[in-house]
Amino acid sequence: MSTPIKDPTPAPADLGPAPRPRKADAPARFADSGGVLNVFSHGFLALWAVMIVLPLAWIVLSSFKTDAQIGGSAWTWPSHWSFEVFVRAWNKGIGGFFLNTVIVLAFSVALTMLFGAMAAYVLARYEFPGNRVIYYFFVAGAMFPVYLALVPLFFMVRNLGMLNTYQGLILVYVAYSLPFTVFFLHSFFRTLPTAVHEAAMIDGCSHTRAFFQVMLPIAKPGLLSVGIFNVLGQWNQYILPLTLMQKQSGADRDHSMLTQGLVNLALQQGYAGDMPALFAGMTIAMLPVLVVYLSFQRQVQAGLTAGTLK
Amino acid sequence: MATVTFDKATRIYPGTDRAAVDKLDIEIADGEFLVLVGPSGCGKSTSLRMLAGLEDVDDGAIRIGDRDVTHLPPKDRDIAMVFQNYALYPHMTVADNMGFALKIAGVNKTEIRTRVEEAAKILDLTEYLGRKPKALSGGQRQRVAMGRAIVREPQVFLMDEPLSNLDAKLRVQTRTQIAGLQRRLGTTTVYVTHDQVEAMTMGDRVAVLKDGLLQQVDSPRNMYDRPANLFVAGFIGSPAMNLVEVPITDGGVKFGNSIVPVNREAIAAAAEKGDRTVTVGVRPEHFDIANGEAKALAKDEPAGVAVTVNVVEELGADGYVYGTAEIGGEQKDIVVRVGGRQVPMKGEVLHVVPRAGETHVFSTSSGERLSD
């Protein structure tokens, strides 16, 4: 858990009489002066990590426990490790909700990225009257909380006849994610070298082709960062599906998202207690996000620091 | 192959009054290697980008061959450009980088491959065709950028300081390679650089720009021997020409303790404009060290100018003496080239005389050349 910062008692070999070059000395001295700060900051980070990791670990562990164990001491260890509970949770509706969420996200994230990248690129790279105004409009979209717009949004989607439909939620997700996407990619496209675009133009590219075949591939780190951000945000979105994805009639198919499904599962507990299934459902919901994040972690970091490189 | 014509081409950046390129008038012959040179901000890159179509032309025209390309987009101009930072596509392999333009033009795959491989062979890139640009050294990237240009077999090559990111040794090497390649391909080339040595060594002709205005276009030899004005005189040549303001006298101009003969009409013209002085230019290698042999103006003093040595740069074959001399009551810095075996010591006093026929005389007020 703890990170070795600095050995407080240097090994005797280090105290040898041989004078070490100044250059090697400098970083060591730097670490000396920062020692106290390092202990403090690492301690703080360790505490923070525990605060984040412990509840998550607790959820995963709880899905292996029985109702009785969950009701008992929080510190007991699961007695038998069986994945049967995950199957149970999946069949209790989590599977359907999972699928709904995947369908919606497949389209909403793809469209957000496509539209966001196109808008950001044009705003960042082309000078035209109203350029700044449009950009500020996009950015302003990120300024006000979604709750303020919930009621008008509900009526708007209802008037379009898109309540409890995939396409309705997809469109809302796209609109909801565009401001940040445009904001982020706008600054990212600004950092890309103009000469590459010019080279593409001289090589005979049209604007469209230069964008899709040259600029987008170069912007991959930025696209990945903001893409993952959008996946996380939309996967965990609750208030929007809650408002827009309610069954409108008895015959209506249930298009609930995973988050809604989990809440329903939790609410049912009052009547038919299956706590392990709830925890298993939450674990299932966490997994894709974790997988996405872990597999692209390197690119995300590259994307976030892209402006500082080169 | 084609000629290139700048016909009073002008570029004024939005929000500025002064033209970045002001009525540029150059005719570039078919197959010629023209170098645009000048200090930074002189408009040389802007001129090149106007020719490339990356910069608008506000006035005048640009023609490639007989085609007026003034307002054509870059892709319709049949040009290829090498950028200073190479601008390679980082996500494509070397082969894809070089073949990208052909792919867009709809050339079939086998043809693209043969042309790319041919260019790679010329540039010694064959073994790197499968690599991405980031796995290449600076010199290799530069060659890929060159390859991307020659694969297309365009009418005109444009090069925007393609060597400035290379280290000094590689730059000298690549300089000759590019010049040789251009001679072999015979493609009209416009080359931008701020390095006057590059300009002198590579170009068939050199165009010197300053503040958006063309100062002189000429062969490197003529540029060196007969600079058209003070700016060109000071810019071309390293170390720079010594430029000293001296008073006009009868039959010439007085330079220290000797007379530099100058065309009578030129002196008259300068005097007419109210100039009492002219500026004499002498290249460091055109000073002869006089040890009392040359004809002196005043009998009791040795001939020429007394230069007190401050610094000596020894380059092996020869040495440059940086010294000060009192000319017309003012202390002037003077650079003199001396033989590598006769290098003076610091603090010594040399008497130097400008070699007859190798001096340049410029009007002090207008900067124009007065001597032939």
Automatic annotation (TrEMBL), chain A:
Residues 1-25 are annotated as: Disordered. The keyword Transmembrane helix applies. SUPFAM superfamilies: MetI-like. CDD domains: TM_PBP2. Residues 98-296 form the ABC transmembrane type-1 domain. PROSITE patterns: ABC_TM1. InterPro entries: MetI-like, MetI-like_sf. It is a multi-pass membrane protein. It comes from the Bacteria. It is found in: Cell membrane. Belongs to the binding-protein-dependent transport system permease family. PANTHER family: ABC TRANSPORTER PERMEASE PROTEIN MG189-RELATED (PTHR43744:SF12), ABC TRANSPORTER PERMEASE PROTEIN MG189-RELATED-RELATED (PTHR43744). This is Carbohydrate ABC transporter permease. The lineage of its organism: Bacteria, Bacillati, Actinomycetota, Actinomycetes, Kitasatosporales.
From TrEMBL, chain B:
InterPro entries: AAA+_ATPase (IPR003593), ABC_transporter-like_ATP-bd (IPR003439), ABC_transporter-like_CS (IPR017871), ABC_transpr_MalK-like (IPR015855), ABC_transpr_MalK/UgpC-like (IPR047641), Mo/tungstate-bd_C_term_dom (IPR008995), NA-bd_OB-fold (IPR012340), OB_MalK-like (IPR040582). It holds the Pfam family OB_MalK. GO terms for molecular function: ATP binding. Keywords: ATP-binding, Nucleotide-binding, Transport. Residues 4-236 form the ABC transporter domain. It comes from the Bacteria. NCBIfam families: PRK11650.1. This is Sn-glycerol-3-phosphate ABC transporter ATP-binding protein UgpC. It comes from Streptantibioticus ferralitis. The gene is ugpC.
